[in-house]
Design goal:
Strand content: under 5%
Low-confidence stretches: none
Distance between the termini: 55 Å
Shape: globular
Radius of gyration: 21 Å
Number of strands: 4
Oligomer: single chain
Length: 311
């Protein structure tokens, strides 16, 4: 089972893992995983279809929502092939190039989602703080350009990852810690100097944390604006427009923060706990976001029911 070119130290194959010690249950675990992916893809495609076909939803708020659905869809499709191979087909082998490509898309769509959530918080602040000028400040054209900039920037920041990983030398270790490829996971297997990967990976992680900080600042200003409204009914009405976004932020960042804390302070925690947390990080946000927005956003919910009723 030789997977290396010894003259160049070049890796040819990595091996993914599912749930160590529970391999006999993989076929059964694959059933809910397949169901989650089906609901995720259906839900996000539905949101994209509704926003595209309903001209009344061609507004900045829904453009950003479509970007969120697109990033969720991309994130799910990026991890889908290896998750199903590991759990359904018991085929953990993955080529180095495929692994580097997968981690590029997983990290790219994750960073894109973080950026979209950040700009959506700014959109909510602008709508609450200055509702009369909202449509003139954040026009459809500006929202489209902003979405394109966010997408391009996210993937440009992740672009060096595959190349820096490809330049490393891998000696004996080739067993990864998850059922999909992550930059930090592959990087740890290198036996050559990986300081560049560590520093740049930390820089990209800081960008993600900067998004969270800007989201927090936006909500501080939103709360300050809402508290300045005289009518309690108007206060509740203003806050109700943020409920879906707050849920999306919590769904996205709580698993990330929990996993970071677990890796930092829970080094003696069972490996399976960390694996499950990492799987939650990839599976839950793309699944829950369309559900939350369909339930909590009346405009989306009404149009979905209208489509179903017409059919």
């Amino acid at each position: 089972m030789s997977t290396f070119n010894n003259s160049k130290g070049e890796v040819f194959t990595f091996f993914l893992i599912g749930l160590p010690g529970l391999e006999y249950t993989h076929i059964w675990i694959s059933i809910p995983i397949c169901l989650i992916y089906f609901v995720t893809i259906l839900g996000n495609c539905t949101i994209l279809f509704i926003i595209k076909t309903e001209s009344s939803l061609h507004k900045p708020m829904y453009y950003f929502l479509s970007m969120l659905a697109f990033s969720d869809l991309g994130l799910s499709l990026s991890s889908l092939p290896t998750m199903l191979r590991v759990f359904l087909l018991n085929a953990p082998r993955i080529s180095a190039d495929a692994c580097f490509a997968q981690q590029f898309f997983i990290h790219g769509f994750s960073l894109m989602e973080s950026s979209v959530l950040m700009i959506m918080s700014f959109d909510r602040f602008l709508a609450i703080h200055n509702p009369l000028r909202y449509s003139s400040i954040l026009t459809n054209a500006r929202a489209t350009k902003l979405s394109l900039v966010l997408t391009t920037t996210s993937f440009l920041l992740i672009l060096p990852f595959p190349f820096t990983l490809r330049s490393l030398t891998y000696c004996k270790k080739n067993l990864l810690s998850h059922s999909y490829c992550l930059h930090q996971d592959v990087m740890k297997l290198a036996c050559s100097d990986n300081k560049v990967d560590i520093i740049y990976g930390f820089f990209v992680a800081l960008i993600g944390m900067l998004d969270l900080a800007l989201i927090s600042i936006s909500y501080i200003f939103i709360l300050k604006t809402v508290l300045g409204i005289a009518s309690q009914q108007e206060q509740l009405k203003a806050l109700s427009t943020c409920v879906s976004h707050i849920c999306a932020v919590l769904i996205f960042y709580i698993p990330i923060i929990s996993l970071a804390v677990l890796y930092r302070f829970g080094k003696h925690a069972p490996l399976i706990i960390r694996i499950l947390m990492a799987d939650v990080l990839l599976l839950v946000p793309p699944l829950m976001n369309p559900i939350v927005y369909c339930v909590k956003t009346q405009q989306i919910r009404v149009r979905i029911l209208k489509k179903l009723y017409l059919k």
